[in-house]
Amino acid sequence: MGDERNVIGRYTALARRRARQEEGADADGAGAGGKRTVRERIPRARRRPAEPGQGRRGGGARWAWAGAAAVGAAALAWSTSFSVTKLALERTPPLTVGALRFCLAAVLLAVAVRLQRRWKPPSVRERLEMAAAGLLGITLYFGLENFGVDLATASDATLIVASYPVVTFALEFALFRRRPAPAALLGMALAVGGVVLIVRDNADSAGSQRLLGDLLLALGGLAWAAYNLLLVARRPRMSALTATYYQTLGGGLAFAAAALTEHRDWGGLAPVDIGLMAYLAGVCSIGGFLCYNVGLRSISSTTAVTILNTIPVFGVVSAVVVAGESVTKMQILGGAVVVAGVVLSLRRDPSGHDESPPGETEKADGEKAGAET
């Protein structure tokens, strides 16, 4: 109770100080012949905070469209990651691709982090915790993804990774004994069924190597789910950009150490390889992250999740156009079932309440976003 009174006292003092500052500024304006509007006479501390997409000049609708476009750009960037990775793997080993991508991304993020207003480095303990999280969410997950894409196809990866939010929900329900809503259960079953359709089709048509790649991609879903639950449990007290930087730094350095095992397969990087790595680091890892966070300022997390469900569509198109892959009808069917399952598991009921446990919808967009940062 004492802590609450201290917080209220500090808030009240801050509100009064701001009100006095604004009154002084308004007095200066009035003395110059200016008139204050009703909103200008209300202290900022008492004003109602604007909803996403509201309170901006030009109307909320325009900003909502801009936010949706930003999230759409992030989805497009992330969806091309698999096909670009497939091209990079033609001449560079999987662990080396991860090392080059995330070490370069860490350098770019180091600059972006220090451009934040009033940025202060977190404590050593917090930095080590985020670096350790990077071992799970970057080194382990993207290591499995790179090996999976190398053995399978970019289109397989796109469709299987679409099921990752459902894997996270299922793991959380299993660990924390939370009872999922009926819609969430049905969505999980559909997503798993869609993955089975994709994997079974590949097992029948492409042999054991592609099947192994698909299984590695599915195993990556467990690594990604564990990573998300770890972040939820630790709740880092820093900006998303700062947390991403230290995770990328830790994961990139671990990738660099692991890549030493592939030194016999190293060769000179051609200009096209450098361009592919720069694209993965700059566009997929950083550009997508920035676009996504800009978009979330103007639209709700539910809208963002809906837009992110276009990633499988963009990803398959990218696999066909960029990597020159062919897609079977069974893959398309399996991908559609996966997307339907994810949408159903994130669905809100008509009353506006989330059918999944509190906070799940808000976490889901971050989980899907982070899968390609």
TrEMBL record:
<feature type="transmembrane region" description="Helical">
    <location>
        <begin position="272"/>
        <end position="292"/>
    </location>
</feature>
<feature type="transmembrane region" description="Helical">
    <location>
        <begin position="63"/>
        <end position="83"/>
    </location>
</feature>
<feature type="transmembrane region" description="Helical">
    <location>
        <begin position="211"/>
        <end position="231"/>
    </location>
</feature>
<feature type="transmembrane region" description="Helical">
    <location>
        <begin position="304"/>
        <end position="324"/>
    </location>
</feature>
<feature type="domain" description="EamA">
    <location>
        <begin position="67"/>
        <end position="199"/>
    </location>
</feature>
<feature type="transmembrane region" description="Helical">
    <location>
        <begin position="127"/>
        <end position="144"/>
    </location>
</feature>
<keyword id="KW-0812">Transmembrane</keyword>
<feature type="transmembrane region" description="Helical">
    <location>
        <begin position="156"/>
        <end position="176"/>
    </location>
</feature>
<dbReference type="Pfam" id="PF00892">
    <property type="entry name" value="EamA"/>
</dbReference>
<feature type="transmembrane region" description="Helical">
    <location>
        <begin position="330"/>
        <end position="346"/>
    </location>
</feature>
<protein>
    <recommendedName>
        <fullName>EamA domain-containing protein</fullName>
    </recommendedName>
</protein>
<keyword id="KW-0472">Membrane</keyword>
<feature type="transmembrane region" description="Helical">
    <location>
        <begin position="183"/>
        <end position="199"/>
    </location>
</feature>
<dbReference type="InterPro" id="IPR050638">
    <property type="entry name" value="AA-Vitamin_Transporters"/>
</dbReference>
<keyword id="KW-1133">Transmembrane helix</keyword>
<dbReference type="InterPro" id="IPR037185">
    <property type="entry name" value="EmrE-like"/>
</dbReference>
<feature type="domain" description="EamA">
    <location>
        <begin position="212"/>
        <end position="346"/>
    </location>
</feature>
<feature type="transmembrane region" description="Helical">
    <location>
        <begin position="95"/>
        <end position="115"/>
    </location>
</feature>
<feature type="transmembrane region" description="Helical">
    <location>
        <begin position="243"/>
        <end position="260"/>
    </location>
</feature>
<dbReference type="GO" id="GO:0016020">
    <property type="term" value="C:membrane"/>
</dbReference>
<feature type="region of interest" description="Disordered">
    <location>
        <begin position="349"/>
        <end position="373"/>
    </location>
</feature>
<comment type="similarity">
    <text>Belongs to the EamA transporter family.</text>
</comment>
<dbReference type="InterPro" id="IPR000620">
    <property type="entry name" value="EamA_dom"/>
</dbReference>
<feature type="region of interest" description="Disordered">
    <location>
        <begin position="16"/>
        <end position="60"/>
    </location>
</feature>
